[in-house]
Structures are given as structure tokens and as C-alpha cells.
Amino acid sequence: MPETNPETHVIDFRAAEQLLAARDPRGAVKLLDSVIAAHPENTAARLLRARAFFAAAQLRPAELEFELVLEREPDNAFAHFALARTFQRAGRPEQATRHFRLAAALDPNPEYLRAARFDDRP
Questions:
Q1: Which sections of the protein are TPR repeats (predicted)?
Q2: Where does residue 94 rank: exposed (0-12), middle (13-18), buried (19+ CB within 10 A)?
Q3: Residue 74 and residue 60: Cα distance in Å, rounded?
Q4: Spatial CB neighbours of 72, under 8 Å, sequence gap ≥ 6
Q5: DSSP 24
């Protein structure tokens, strides 16, 4: 097995971004596993892995990663939005609405505001 070092992890992270963009989420997860094993505190890697799990329709692992990111960064609007989409896709609308609204409250991004559906009754 090749020796790993911080530069290797940066390269793996960037390659995982490219794989996710190329619609190979499983390949991205494989690269990110080693990055996260070496740097479990790396929130950016965890957020990317959560996105890759979501893209691969691995909803429970995506949910767990997004929740871990939010434990560390409770004001991360994107993580709330992505977790909401994960709940929505898993058929859990109440939890989805809560996180869509948190995302919109943290960042008035038009996409977040539309998803939050503040006009609808709870």
C-alpha cells in the first residue's frame, strides 16, 4: 500500500470532488474514507462525503455525516439544506421542513427560501 501523507490527502480530497462532479459518488466515498480516517476532524471532507453518499442514494450514511457536520458547525446553512433534502428523499417531511427552514433562516439563498415554504402552514 502506498505511503500516505498530508499532500496525498489533499490530492485525494480534490480527486473526490472531481469524481463527485463526474457523477461517480461511490468512487468519491472511497477516496474520502482514507482522508477522514487520517483527519476525522476535517469537516470539509465529511461534508463532501455526505454529498457523495446522498448522490449514491445512501441516505442513512448521508444523514449521519450531515448531522456530524452540523454538530461541529450548527450555522452551516448548506448542511441544513442538504440534510433536509436527505430527509425529504427518505420520506420524512417534518424533519425536512425543519432543516429547510433553518437553512433559510441562516442564509436567505433563494433556493433555501423556496424550499422552506414559509407561506405554508406547518
A1: 77-110
A2: exposed
A3: 19
A4: 43
A5: -
User: Residue 13 CA to chain centroid, in angstroms?
Assistant: 14
Sign of the four-CA dihedral 99, 104, 106, 109 = positive
Query: Which among 25, 18, 22 has a CA at the least distance from the CA of 10?
Result: 18
Give residue 10's identity as a one-letter amino acid code: V
Task: Please tell me the number of Cα atoms within 13 Å of 110 on its side-chain side.
Answer: 0
CA dihedral 109, 114, 115, 118 (to 10 degrees): 110
| Backbone CA torsion sign across 23, 52, 95, 108 | negative
Q: Give the pLDDT confidence score for residue 118 in this predicted structure.
A: 82
In the chain, domain spans = 1-62, 74-122
Residue-wise DSSP of 74-120 = TT-HHHHHHHHHHHHHTT-HHHHHHHHHHHHHH---HHHHHHHTTTS
Condensed to tens digits (0 to 9), the pLDDT of residues 94-111 reads: 999 999 999 999 999 999
**The three grid cell numbers given for residue 14, joined into one nine-digit string:** 480534490
